[in-house]
Amino acid sequence: MKRAIALALLMGAGFVGGVLWMKQRGASRPAAAEHAPAAEAPADEEAGPTVSRDTNGNAVIAMSDETQGDLGILVKSLAAFQMSREFKGYGRVLDPAPLAALVTELATAQAASAASSTELARLKTLEGQGNASVRALQTAEATALHDQLTARSAGERLVLSWGKAIAGQRDLPAFAQPLVSLDAALVRVDLPVGETLKETPTSARIAALSGQAAEAEFLEPAPNVDPQIQGRGFVFLLKPNSLRLTAGESVVGYIKIPGEPLAGVIVPREAVVRTEGAGWVYVLNSAGDAFTRMEVALDQPTEAGWFVSKGLSAGQYVVVTGAQQLLSFELKGAGGGE
After folding, report:
1. What fold characterizes domain 87-94+179-256?
2. Is the pTM of this model over 0.70?
3. What are phi and psi of 307, to 5 degrees?
4. Which of 255, 244, 248, 183 lies closest to 216 in space, CA to CA?
5. For 100-158, how does the pLDDT look when each residue is reduced to its tens digit (9 = 90+)?
6. What span, in angstroms and rounded, lies between the C-alpha atoms of 189 and 205?
7. What is the maximum span of the chain, computed from C-alpha positions, in angstroms?
8. CATH number of the domain at 50-82+262-333, please?
9. DSSP state of 301
10. Exposure string (b/e) for 192-206, b if CB count within 10 Å is 16 or more?
11. Are 189 and 205 in contact (CB under 8 A)?
12. 121 Cβ neighbours under 8 A, 6+ residues apart
């Protein structure tokens, strides 16, 4: 009995000692934690975007797929495209009011000439029958000649001012009416001084200052020289006037000439960012983890975008959503502003 009591007392003392030891250890943990070094980040933690330069000096922005997704970056494959050879010129939309006035004047003169010629023929018949005086016949002859000369003068001024192609239209009033209502437009494109075309143009792409372009029919070389530009000019008919061009509006004309077409790609308009006085696109590399900013020439607009014949190839991917974000990040990373 005494042995059992002693064993119980011994076990109780051991339990109490264990509790006291655990309390002392627990109380010492916070103090130890205060002096412990901070936990290191996992080795595979995602690194942020970085900016560098390639061997050609182009900016390269590297980032992971996750970061690309967070920024909402979307890319699009460049499509191959062939374009007729073109010669760039500058021009303006011609005012159709003087043409319409000349057409009306010519039509009036022709109608008067036709009427006086008919009257002259009638009086000649009557004079031969003795039913008309010589004086009446002479007056009719003078009137008919005057009307003929007036119609000829109007026709010659039309040719000198607007060229043979326009003056020779089968139905001039029908030709002029869409020009007056802005459903069509006459565009004159002038080459730089000293430049000439060996081949006759086939047509032209007329581009407004907004960048939108449309095909125009070649009519003829301009019948005169612009006193300010002093270059060779060409007249084109834009019908329908899909660009809604108005008289006096400045345009850029890409005159198409015969020859083998140029090969290139179409760059979507939304892929282009502008900085440093030029246009640029961000091209995704083959690994899909970096974007290279490359300069593109913006001198050949099309309805689908910009035609580029150098520096890019079909199948490459360019950023179409988020390009401006990449440019802003690049400029900030380089110490610049937006």
Report:
1. Elongation Factor Tu (Ef-tu); domain 3 (2.40.30)
2. no
3. -85, 125
4. 255
5. 999 999 999 999 999 999 999 998 888 888 888 888 889 999 999 999 999 999 999 99
6. 10
7. 179
8. 2.40.420.20
9. B
10. eeeeeeeeebebbbb
11. no
12. none
Written as six digits, the tokens of 95 are: 């005012």
Q: Which amino acid is at 122?
A: R
- CA–CA separation, 253 vs 334, rounded Å? 39
CB 203 within 8 A of CB 256: yes
Which residue type sits at 99? L
Where are the domains positioned within the chain?
50-82+262-333, 87-94+179-256, 97-172
DSSP secondary structure, 84-141, as one string = --EEEEEEEEPPSHHHHHHHHHHHHHHHHHHHHHHHHHHHHHHHHTT-S-HHHHHHHH
How far apart CA 74 and CA 218 sit, in angstroms, is: 40
The one-letter amino acid at 46: E
CA distance 2 to 87: 120
Read off the pLDDT of residues 60-109 as tens digits, 9 standing for 90 and up. Answer: 999 988 888 888 999 999 999 988 788 889 999 999 999 999 999 999 99
* Closest of 165, 170, 172, 273 to residue 220, by C-alpha: 165
